[in-house]
Amino acid sequence: MPMIKYISDNGLDTIKANMDGFIDMMRNNRDDASWVPEFLQMNPFVSTDYLLDFQFVMKGDDPSKTDYENAMLLYKAFESVGIKNAVIYDERFLSGFILSFGYKYFIWRWGLETKSHITDALFFSDSKRRAIARNSIGRLYQWVCLTKDETLDNPFELTKFAFENPKVFRIGFYPCFDGENVRLGYFKALKQWSEKGNQIPAIDKLLRHFTMLCGVNVAEAMSQQDIIDYIMEYLENNR
Amino acid sequence: MQTKSYKVFSYPYLASFCNDYKTSKFSLQVEPGRKDDNIAVRLSYSLDNPELEQDILDGKLKVVVRATCNQYSFVKIWEFKQESTVILECIDPLEVGETISFVGYLMANCDFDLANSDLSDEWAGVISRVQKNNIVGETFEEKIFVKHEGEGKKQSIFNFVCKRDMKDGEAVQMILSEQRIVFCLAKKEFETYKTIQNKSSPIIVSSILVPAFAEILSKMVAVTSPDGESEPSQFSNEYGQKNWYQVLRARYIQTFKKEPEYGEIDQYKAAQTLLQNPTSLVFRYASESQRRSIKESAYADD
User: Fold this and answer.
1) B165 and A21 in contact by Cβ < 8 A?
2) What's the complex ipTM?
3) pTM
4) Are B51 and B57 contacting, i.e. CB atoms less than 8 angstroms apart?
């Protein structure tokens, strides 16, 4: 079974200092990342104890349509080997995972046209929070974590809804939605709204409205129903 | 350095950043420990306002603590029982990053009229309507630091790397946008660096790191805003969340018992102290080399 490898600190520093050359090499080597040690003149891959039998789904003309399927596979794979957030949400782990398990998938899903795009989706180029939300693997895993609700008959019911409306994941950038009751309340309100035949509204406006509530309340200590009611009221008033 | 808070409430608010109450204080104590593989925290609060204490006993108010680790979208809320000021909780260290922040809040359990005899002149005699879930006070933020052993540990806050497109002899480049300070060297210089890094480290430290650290420390110094308030520099806003910045700042405070943002200590001297005086070591090293060469030439004459 293949081993998950992460990238050493020195490896990441060297890659980022030579980013242009690194991207050129990716463009010329689209099958796997075996060229990396030679290019860096050092082996940046560090072994871990995690063994994983994993393959990304790559089918159809629109790669973004596979996001839900791949996110669920990733979530279940990480869960099966017991890897936790402190390990997963680490640049060394995520970039190592992409280069060892998802190299072809990454190129297929994200392309290699824009440098900033590659840097954002393959490495961390911003604060950790934003970087995770932009990383090609970090975001897929995070999206499942954000929407999983163990109290439902199907814990991934909200996950499916959210992947069908990916703009709702903008909450990843807003710390006031971190509380479980808040984010699940938010997804449930939007799902109810959508099931009534309404369009999902402009999310940023809704999020800004919600941050006003968080200024004077501890939203995480409110009941989930209070959160749903608050969002539904906003949606009704801003049709 | 304490930053300003811009929170505005339509009722008196009990917090260190506003003076709506004359003498009342509300604070949170966080004592971290370990329980098996988890972080155990003992949380206790103190509130020295009898009327607000009575509101808690009457069930109008409750005290909640919010623990957050923004990096990982981690949030936990705990509620103190009505007659208790202490709670014990556990956190899985693998669910959080390096820092967990704790803030205690006074939160309304129902709609009620808030009145208090300790209100400042501005609010004296005012009865304010507070709605269910509103917060009417908060403690200062307390932080605990989590150490991730093994794989998660960063060994140094700086690193030297080879940059392929640099020409030999080109000036060293410093990158601050990563979690470590990265010095880029051309291929030939990098090879030389690798050969001499152990035996001549004082020379490398004093010639590259000391000036770099001095420059960084000078840019960390706070600036004065037009209204005379001290506020973080643009440099601090840009890099304040980076691992190297936080480690350097913590080391500075530990060494000098002052915050680097105040810039009270000469930055060049501070940089040398933080790097354990490599410049003095270079002089000692040079003096020993000179003595050795005199001795060697004396033997040669014999």
Assistant:
1) yes
2) 0.77
3) 0.80
4) no
